[in-house]
Structures
1.
Amino acid sequence: MTHTVLITGASGALGRKLTSGLGGAGYTLRLTDIVSFPDALPPGAVFTQADLLDAAAIARLAEGCRTILHFGGVSVDRPFEEVLGPNIVGLRNIYEAARLAGARVMFASSNHAIGFHERTEPLDADCAHQPDSFYGLSKAYGELMGGLYWNKHGVESVHVRIGSCFPEPAEARMLSTWLSYADLVRLAVRCIEAPWTGNCVVWGASANSRSFWRNDARAALGWVPQDTADTFVDRVAGVVSGNPVQERFQGGAYCAAGYSRTERD
Ligand code: NAI
Ligand code: 15L
């Protein structure tokens, strides 16, 4: 419980949930984001405003930390030019900082790294990347970056392919992809506490019976999700888009955005 934990993207939706959950559990938190932190800080937490592109600032923030929860950066489908800095260069800065500090990284990857797999295809964590956007491609790059730093430098990573982490599922697809905030915090605790993680992938989804995903590293980490989207079936099962591309692939709307392919088997 004495580990110092660095959270990037602390001012974002998930960063704020991690901050309150881990702060409440007694962790010493170092928080950072490019925008100010909107909430009261938990006891002992320190917030530093910094850009992920500032390699020296990120390295200073990571000094003395055992774990980096990397949740900062572009978090939705955006043009390549906007993704490039935070999610590609910024990620390199995170991994260099982790190497220098001897820290483990929990990387907020995304289902959009594998979004162009069909919804009918159950996926194991070692499936091929099939990014559905430049954003998803940046998450695949992040997972590969973790592999490079593991093989070359022994930096440990847990790449969490988060599905849809919101207060509640909002559409039928999220009956498969939803991750509750409480399960996210429980997973973060295991990423901090597990004695060894190596370089592994975990599907970031609650215990949803309609899940697209199986066979990941959760047992080795000791993570067992407690929540399920199943209780929302009556409310959202009928909420579908009517777009055939969106409904066919796991990445949903990200697959359909800008889609121009005219033939597909
Ligand atoms: P968010 O957009 O609310 O938070 C991201 C934070 O990163 C923001 O506070 C933003 O200010 C910060 N940021 C952006 N550029 C930065 C820069 N150059 N330097 C420093 N900080 C910067 O997103 P959310 O929902 O909290 O997601 C957090 C992470 O989880 C993201 O990496 C996202 O890709 C990932 N994720 C989230 C999912 C979800 O359902 N919420 C699903 C899959 C992945
Ligand atoms: C993500 O990667 C995004 O960060 C989030 O805003 C949602 O779009 C989520 O995926 C999803 O697929 O529902």
2.
Amino acid sequence: MKSNEPISEGLGATILGPRNYPREQQNPDLLRPPPTDRGLVPNLRFSFADAHMRLSEGGWAREVTQRELPIATKIAGVNMRLNPGAIRELHWHLQVELGYVLSGGCRITAMDQHGRTFVDDVFGGDVWFFPKAIPHSIQGLKEGCEFLLMFDDGCFSEYNTLLVSDVIEHIPREIIEANLGIPLNEILSIDKKQRWIFQGRIPELLAKDYISKNTVPQSFSSSMKKIEPIMCDGGTIRILDQAKFPVMNNMSLAIVEVEPGAMREIHWHPMEDEWQYYLSGEARMTVYMPDAGVRTFDYKAGDVGCVPFAAPHYVENTGTTTMRFLETFRSPVLEDVSLQQWLALTPRELVEDHFPSFTKSTLDKFNKDYLGIVRTKTLK
Ligand code: MN
Ligand code: MN
């Protein structure tokens, strides 16, 4: 049984002053850092549990952006809930939007710059992608829904989107009347309250909803459920990138499932920063940054993690249940470099000269294949 005090390997002392015990319990690797941690690594974790909840009629949203997690400059995340029939107002934004359905079902609609439309009903495990500035909406189906949105800019905010109601209310009335044919009295009767998320009618079955046969040539929706997993010893990796979802031209997404007693092996990515969202279980991750140092963070469901470009890291399942997380990149491809594979495929003499203490049998164990996930211990 480990102590609940910052004491490790003969160093440290008990805490005498005030303490937030539940927080310390959630951060065992900050309270008692591994002796390999050092230096000035910035914060690489922010929990949606610590994010402001914006409540609205029929739903809510909370966001983890660069404001909450300053290192996350490339991607911002929004967690949103819509009751049955509740609508995320017709809107658009400067950034692309990658959606992942966490629970329930929702209807998404969009129209592109050529007047081609898109409508689909998406459910748990499905994803959508809206290119930048393409107008769209989201609405809860009869079961309601909750989803995660990811945007290709850490400064994105749900407070900075272009809402159809706001646009119509702030263009001179005679212009709206002339352009849209809306009589002045109907314009003056527009309900001034902020819509953003508001209660609507539960949508009809999709077939009745189609208003156009001229649909977008590349679907705006896909699903992680149909992705063939990379089978690893200790878990699976499912990758969705532009090769499988052509419209998604500057984002990629993976779902990693790690069994108890296993970890996403030590690796780094040659494309971009990694933005993570933890779906279930418990994890810890150490990140090595050449200019800053090394730090270890603990993660639970609903937490966001971040890994700077090219920084080596692993993600260990520290719990007793399957640990699942999303890794997202502002890149059309998702690739990684494995430390183990690199050492295995480097001329043996070169590795031996770096590490004279490593025996031949140790070096023989390096695996030349890509593993992705490896066992850390044998479970009873
Ligand atoms: Mn949007
Ligand atoms: Mn990674």
3.
Amino acid sequence: MEFYQTEADKQRLERQIGRATQSVNAVKDIVAQGRFRQGYHLMPPAYWMNDPNGFIYYKGRYHLFYQHNPYSAVWANMHWGHASSEDLVHWIHHPIALAPSEPYDTCFRGGCYSGSSVVAKEKLIIMYTANLVEHGVQTQKQCLAWSDDGIHFSKYHNNPVIDCPKELDAANFRDPKIWKHGDLWYCVVASRINGDACCAIFRSTDLIQWEYKGVLVRGEGKLGSMWECPDFFPLEDKYVLQFSPMNLGVYKTVYLVGDMDYDTCRFTWKTKGEIDAGFDFYGPQTMQAPDGRRIMIGWQNAWDWMPWFSSFGAAPMENWCGCMSIPREITLGQDDSLQFKPVDEIKLLRNSAQDFGLLKCAEGVKQSLIVGDNVHFELNLDIDLHQTNADSLQIHIRHSDFEDTLIQLDFKNQVLTFDRSHSDFCMKGTMTRPLSLNSDVNLSLNLFSDTSSIELFVGDTLCMDCAVFAENKSNELFFESFGGDTILNAYGWQMPRNKKYRTTNI
Ligand code: FRU
């Protein structure tokens, strides 16, 4: 593994990063004052953010890179933004890590697309997709960059390192995820084979020379037209492949659980599930924490090609767009389904605990709660299904005379609906999913409200992330029971209102 760079290469990249940094610096103080900026979800210092990239623990810190346009709050001209944290919840912004600087990755409708990172010989190595559109033809190739400090990167002098194999689609060949198994490096790349979504797999001894090992698994026409941002990782004695499918109706994050055969480089799966059922959660990436936990973070937004998309909301008016979800810990359930919960570190952000005790939400009575400022808060509900005889419970949140977000638990028909039809002036619609209930077990709801989003964890397996650009004065929270009473315990905490993440050299 030989990495070096010439002075000219170094200067070219530094020049592009310098220009991008100036652009971000010119507005970041204004963005920090924005009315809709998030209180505690990680967002860019300014302008556009999409997928998490290169999520890793390196030299004592969690590093999170992300797709970033440092020139405007719309998608274009992809760079890699960079933040790091000791605990997954207090972040520091670092200088932009990667900028388009070479003929193979410089393109306004392209640039340095999503990818991942690994640590090898103490270096942090990134693999990203270089996306070019030349004379109307799009090509995607995989490239390397490396760093000795986790902050300043150089591109590998002999990029690209992986060209698209002939049987795959060179216009859709992106988002490499690398890992090590035994003494060898592996990498999966999303692509298409004869129009069918698939994941290609490559193997290497040195991260530079990659051998194509064929198709790890394909969708057989049933799982969308392209799997963006694939991630492949071991969980207990199983392997998980997760991806964001294009053209799969309301599903935008799917996981498959099964077995990996390293001799044949093929993955066979039995269990399929959805990672997040909200309007806004895409391209999640996972990493393994030093204590062994598998941690996932996702982009809390949607693409304009999705069936329910109506707009990016109020953020672009304030010179930013996009933020990250709360990091989640993933575990394997008994039936091989995935289980999700917010990382324990989120508790570090809690303030002013409130124990509301046992509440009876009686039929027809509006039961109001005040949790901190009712805008930035965490609320835990433990619903006693044995005592509850209501047909449904409605939770109204970020409510005022002119706005309302509604979470409806329909106990009778076992359905949960997230309704943001009246949440704000631009983002409409409802999302509905089955609600599995067992009257011997309490139903737990963990709800996070931030200035411009709501994140909901229901039991172990259902998560919903939704952007909600409600005004801060829309801060009423109340419950209403229908067809009977709902019995629950409630606990709440104030969460940070305006967390200013420190920036280094930016
Ligand atoms: C997914 C995605 C990736 C691509 C990146 C470009 O959100 O389309 O497939 O690498 O965004 O920003």
